[in-house]
Design brief:
It comes from bioreactor metagenome. Pfam families: DDE_Tnp_1_6, DUF772. This protein has about 525 residues and is of the alpha+beta class. Among the domains are: about 100 residues; about 100 residues, no CATH class. About 45% of the residues lie in helices and about 15% in strands. It has 19 helices and 13 strands. It is flat.
Length: about 525
């Protein structure tokens, strides 16, 4: 009879008697087509020398091999188990995890945490590059094209811990007024003009004066402070605030904001806006490069938009895999003169959607008479002719430098006189901004136009159409699988390095799941989805 006492922590003492069943090999209880078997076989082909070098041969040996830790981590990502306690729980109760651990003692969540902390980015990059090479032996990864896109993922940071650059700069400017007020008080008290001193030098001077005058600093209620002590405290507060604001700007760098709980996170406007008020949340811009439905690389950026991420991301991929991608396929968010010029200079073929591609299809675009594209061009005289028949003559060349240092040249064409033009309000929509005496000007970037024309030749070709369709299926599909199927919508770790490691681990799991699905569905070797013809 089973005991009814349930206050015992050891439940073995109250369970019904059971016969021990042989065999005890967990592998015999796992189906032949389970992804854990494929994962173990594929990851066994990697060289773990660099990973093992992270562990010293001296001292206490790790209870579980780092290789097994790595396999369990990747399998956890494949199964959608992202937390350390979740991994520990699965190793306790799940036969597949026990088989992967080779019957070693279940590690604690702290042991998993120590492994992840010790795992460095170079070692993980090395393993991922090997992993992609092994996958290319199983399936069609050829680096012939890469579909690139980005998404914003919320960081593990509190939502109201923002620091805004504009506010910091404004507050930093106000400190000058406060310091000036301190100098005025000192002048009124001692007759010393210290306006030429900086805040630190003034604080040193006040400290010396207080010591020389034997002024004892007092604090608390009922204590009477010496006027010089009050001035000293005000100056000290100014110095502390200046150092605080400068620290904020140092952390921020080129960004406009950051979070106090995760300094690497930047406040961005997310697509998931449940309140409908455009609330900014701390997030990372995550870039994926995908081919044959496999993730080839992951990029973590603080830029809210994708334009400035393309060049560093491609450089990162080239270093990671030691080879270039032939065709770069991306959406309109990556279209810029700087990007196209860099890609052309480095031998990449581009299938990048132009910014104005969708707008150009609309009739309203062709009716905008103020656009240079809708004006006549007199090539012999190098002049544009507006809808009213007036000529815009070449007025010179301007060069603008953007925040990344790229120099963009544009030719300026200007009309000699736009007064009394009946189409002026239609042609110059921003006439109120320029004023009534400003004549019509247009800017023509010849280099950008040539690069766009070269890009459009491949973009509009049958191959370009095939690649564009696959971009929307493969790379956008990878984000959909990650967010909806894997339920990965918020980063768990803090700091750019930890976030990168977490997402690269996720890429391991994603690719293993993709390989399993393609094997089971008989789709190995299928690199691109075919274009479906309309009936």
């Amino acid at each position: 009879m089973i005991s009814k006492k349930t206050n015992l922590k050891n439940y073995n003492r109250i369970q019904a008697p059971r016969q021990i069943i042989l065999p005890l090999d967990f592998g015999l209880m796992i189906n032949e087509n389970e992804p854990v078997r494929l994962l173990d076989a594929v990851l066994e082909e990697l060289d773990y020398t660099e990973l093992l070098h992270l562990y010293s041969p001296k001292g206490r040996k790790s209870a579980v091999s780092p290789v097994l830790f790595f396999k369990v981590f990747v399998f956890g990502m494949l199964e959608g188990i992202y937390s350390l306690r979740g991994l520990q729980r699965q190793c306790d109760v799940n036969l597949q995890y026990k088989w992967l651990l080779q019957s070693f003692r279940v590690p604690s969540h702290m042991a998993f945490g120590r492994f992840f902390k010790r795992l460095t980015v170079p070692v993980l990059n090395n393993l991922f590059a090997q992993f992609i090479k092994v996958l290319s032996e199983y399936d069609s990864i050829t680096f012939e094209e890469a579909f690139i896109d980005g998404t914003k993922i919320e960081a593990n940071a509190n939502r109201y811990t923002f620091v805004w650059k504009k506010n910091v700069i404004k507050s930093l400017g106000k400190l000058k007024e406060k310091l000036s007020a301190v100098c005025q008080k000192l002048l009124a008290l001692t007759g010393v003009d210290a306006s030429a001193l900086g805040d630190t030098a003034l604080l040193d001077y006040l400290s010396k004066e207080c010591r020389d005058s034997d002024i004892a600093f007092v604090h608390g209620t009922g204590k009477h402070k010496h006027p010089l002590q009050r001035i000293h405290e005000e100056c000290e507060a100014v110095v502390e605030k200046r150092l605080e604001y400068e620290a904020h700007l140092g952390i921020m760098g080129e960004r406009n904001s950051y979070s106090k709980t995760d300094n690497a996170a930047t406040f961005m406007r997310m697509k998931e806006d449940h309140m409908g008020n455009g609330q900014l949340k701390p997030a990372y811009n995550v870039q994926f490069a995908v081919q044959s439905e496999y993730i080839l690389g992951v990029g973590i950026f603080a830029n809210p938009n994708d334009t400035r991420t393309l060049i560093p991301f491609l450089q990162q991929l080239e270093i990671l895999h030691g080879r270039k991608i032939e065709h770069v396929v991306a959406d309109a968010g990556y279209d810029s003169e700087e990007n196209l010029a860099w890609l052309d200079r480095n031998g990449y073929l581009t299938v990048i959607k132009p910014k104005t591609y969708e707008v150009n299809k609309k009739r309203s675009y062709a009716e905008q008479i103020g656009r240079a594209e809708n004006m006549q061009y007199d090539e012999a005289k190098n002049e544009y002719i507006c809808a009213k028949g007036r000529r815009l003559r070449y007025a010179g060349t301007t060069t603008k430098k953007n925040s990344s240092g790229y120099m963009r040249e544009s030719k300026v064409y200007q009309c000699s006189n736009c007064n009394y033009c009946s189409k002026r309000s239609e042609c110059q929509r921003s006439v109120a901004e320029h004023g009534p005496m400003q004549s019509k000007r247009i800017f023509i970037a010849d280099n950008y136009l040539k690069l766009q024309e070269k890009n459009m030749q491949l973009f509009s070709s049958p191959k370009g159409i095939l690649l564009r369709i696959n971009r929307s299926i493969q790379v956008e599909g990878s984000f959909g699988v990650m967010k909806e199927d894997f339920k990965y919508k918020r980063i768990l770790r803090r700091g750019k390095e930890n976030v990168y490691k977490e997402l690269l681990m996720l890429a391991f799991g994603f690719n293993m799941r993709k390989l399993h699905n393609r094997i089971q569905s008989g789709r190995l070797g299928t690199r691109l989805f075919a274009v479906k013809e309309a009936c």
